[in-house]
Design brief:
Length: about 50
Amino acid sequence: MTEPDDFEAKLAELDRLLNDPEVRMDPDRVWTILAEISGKDVAAQVQVPVGA
């Protein structure tokens, strides 16, 4: 993520996911955006199935 506009778009999407009551909460997407913003590689993370 090198573009400031991309960073702003990610922040806007994260804000919408967390604060807009009309948008379905998607925890996987929230964590993915947070990882992208922080610069971590999500693919390298171990994915734990929901309910495990």
